[in-house]
Amino acid sequence: MKLGLFYQAWRNIAAKPLQTILSLALLSFGVGMVSLMLLTEKQVNEAFQRNIKDIDLVLGAKGSPLQLILANVYHIDAPTGNISQREAEKVLKHPYIESGIPLAYGDNHEGYRIVGTEHSYVEHYGATLAKGKLWKSPFEVTAGARVAENLGLRIGDTFFSAHGLKDQTDIHTNKTFTVVGILNSNGSVVDQLLLTPMESIWNVHLEDGEVVDAETREITAMLLKKRNPLAVLTIPNTLRETNMQVALPSIEVNRLTQRFGVGTSALRAIAILIMALSFASIFISVLDNIRTRRHELALMRTMGGTPSTLYRLLLLEGGLLSTAGTALGLAISRVGMMTLGQLVESQFHYDVAAFAILGSEWALAGATVLVGLLAAAIPARQSLRLDISRTLSEA
Amino acid sequence: MVHVEGIQFRYGKDSPKLDFPDFRCAAGEHMLLLGDSGTGKTTLLHLLCGMLRPESGVLRVADRDLCATSDRDLDVWRGSELGIVFQRSHFVQSLTVAENLALPHQLARGHVPANAIDRLSSMLDRLGIAHRANARPSELSVGEQQRASIARALLHQPKVVFADEPTSALDDRNAEAVMNILEREAASATLVVVTHDQRIKDRYSNCVTLKSADS
C-alpha cells in the first residue's frame, strides 16, 4: 500500500476538486499567457533579425518606410510602388554603397510571391539548392523550400502566375513558369518565395514579341549594403527630388517592436496579475485546508506524524498545485503557439511555431513553482504550532 | 506499563490546578479510569498520551518517561507504541478506510509493511467492516466508524491502548459489542478505558475513579 506524503498530498488535492480546478485554471492561464508571449517574442524577433541580415538600407518608392521594409525584406506587406531601375542603379553606384540586390514583383502563384531578382539574393541568405539549379532564363523558377513543400512543386512543374500578391483571379495564361530548382530550407524569407529572373516579371505582362525598353524598366526595391556608415545620412538627401526613399530595416523593426511592446507589456501585466491571483488562491487553499483539516492534522500527530511531517505535506500540496499549473500553462502556450503558427503560416507563410522550452520559460516555471511553494509555506507554518490536545478536545 | 504518581496539571496560570490520583497498570492488564464530566478524564488521557505535559509528578507509559521526552520523540512514540480510540471518530477524509487504518504505520515508520496489510484485512473481517475497506470514512455509520477507529488503534500492535469514552454514544447492545471487540482485539496489550459510562464500571477489577477538585 502506497501511503507516502506525495500520495496523501495528491489525495487531499483531489478531494477538493472545485478549489483545485480554480487554482489550476488561474495559474495555468497566467503561466500560459506569459509563456506564449515569451515564445512569440523570441520567434518574431528571430524572424525579424534573421531576415535583416546585412541589409543596411532598402531603396524603394516613397511611402511608409515601415511598409517598404515589411514588403521588401519580410514580404508581408504590399510594396509602396515601383521605382526606375536606371535611377536605382545610380544610387547603387554611390561611393558609400557597397552592393545591392534588386527585387521586382507583383505577381503570385497560389498566394506565394514570384520575385524577380539576381542570384546574389540567394547567396545573401545563404540558401542552398536541394534539387535542380538556380534560374537562368526568363520564366525559370527556383522555389523556396516552404513553397515547394506546401504546393507540392517538383522540378519540371509548370504554372501560370496571377496578378497581385495573393489574388488568383487575373491569371496570365500566356506565360508559363517552369520550376528548375528547389532550395533547402534555412528559415529565411527565401523559403516562401518563388525566385525568377527580373525579365520574367517585366515580360509577363507583355504580348509575344514585345520588349521592355531599358529606360522604362522598373523594379520594386533594392536591398543595399553600405560601404560607409555615412550612407545612412547622405543617401536620403540625394533622393529628395526623386520618387524614391531609403529606409533602415533595423530602425523600422525597432519602431515596430516598440509599438508591439506597449501591447505585450499590457498583456504581460494582465498575465502576472492572473498569476498573482492564482498564488493568492493557493495561499487561501492551504490556509483553508489547515482550518478545515485541523482535526485531521491533530489526529495525524497522535499517529506518529511530526510537525515537520504535516508542514511538508501542506507544502507538497502547494508544490503539486503550482507544478501542475505550470506544466499545464506550458502546454496551453504550446497549443496557443500552434494556433498562432497556423494563423501566421496561412497569412504570411512564416513558420513561427516552436515547441522547445526556452531558457526564459524554465526560469518562469522555476519561479512559479517557488512562489507557489512560498504561498503554501506561509499558512503551513500554522501546522507547526498546532495544539493537538485543544484541537482534539474541540472536535 | 502505565505508572502515574503525583501528577499535577493546569491549563494556564489562572486556571485551577488539577491533581490526579496515583495508579499503575501492568503490561497486558485492562483498567478503567472512571469519572463524571469535569473530573479531568480527557485531560488525564491527553497527559498519558504525551499531548499535554504535567507540572510535576511521574508519568511513565510503555517504558517511556514522558516528562523527559522531547516533543518530536513523543510524536513518533505515540505512533509506534500507543493506540488511541477517540470518543468521536476522527479520520483523514481524503483517504479510504483501509488507508486510514494503515496511516499510523506510514507516519511512524515511513512505510506500510506487507504483514500489516494482511492483519488489516483479517481485522476488518473480524470487525465486520471488510466490505467498507475502500469506502470514505464519511460513508460509514457511527457504529462502523467506531469499529474502524478501534481497528486503526490496534493494527500497528501498540503496547498500550487508550480508549476515550468508546461507548458513550452507543446504545446498550452496541456498547457491549464495542467493548467486547476492544477487549478481544487488545487482548495482548495494556488497555486503559476512560469513561463516565456506568454500564461498564464493573467490567475491570483495576478501576480508578477521578473526582472533581471541589468534591
Describe the secondary structure blueprint for this structure.
The complex is a heterodimer of chains A (395) and B (215).
Chain A: H1 5-14, H2 17-52, E1 57-61, H3 65-72, E2 83-84, H4 85-92, E3 97-109, E4 112-116, H5 119-124, E5 129-132, E6 140-143, H6 145-151, E7 158-163, E8 171-183, E9 194-196, H7 198-203, E10 218-219, E11 221-226, H8 231-238, E12 244-247, H9 249-292, H10 294-302, H11 307-348, H12 359-380, H13 388-394
Parallel strand pairs in A: 4-9, 6-8
Antiparallel strand pairs in A: 1-11, 1-12, 2-10, 3-4, 3-7, 3-11, 5-8, 6-9, 7-8
Helix pairs in contact in A: 1-11, 2-9, 2-11, 2-12, 9-11, 9-12, 10-13, 11-12
Chain B: E1 2-9, E2 18-19, E3 23-25, E4 30-35, H1 41-48, E5 56-61, E6 64-65, H2 71-81, E7 82-85, H3 97-109, H4 114-126, H5 142-155, E8 160-164, H6 172-185, E9 190-195, E10 206-210
Parallel strand pairs in B: 4-9, 4-10, 7-8, 8-9
Antiparallel strand pairs in B: 1-2, 1-3, 1-5, 5-6
Helix pairs in contact in B: 2-3, 3-4, 3-5, 5-6
Features:
heterodimer, A: 395 residues, alpha+beta, 2 domains, six-stranded mixed beta barrel, 13 helices, B: 215 residues, alpha/beta, Rossmann fold, 6 helices, globular
Strand order of the largest sheet of chain A: 3-4-9-6-8-7
Strand content of chain B: 15-25%
The oligomeric state is heterodimer
Number of strands of chain B: 10
The count of strands of chain A amounts to 12
Instruction: Please name the CATH architecture of chain B.
Output: 3-Layer(aba) Sandwich
Q: Class of chain B, according to the CATH hierarchy?
A: Alpha Beta
What is the total number of structural domains of chain B? 1
Overall geometry of chain B comes to globular
Unreliable segments of 5+ consecutive residues of chain B: none
Radius of gyration of chain A: 30 Å
Spatial separation of the terminal alpha carbons of chain B: 30 Å
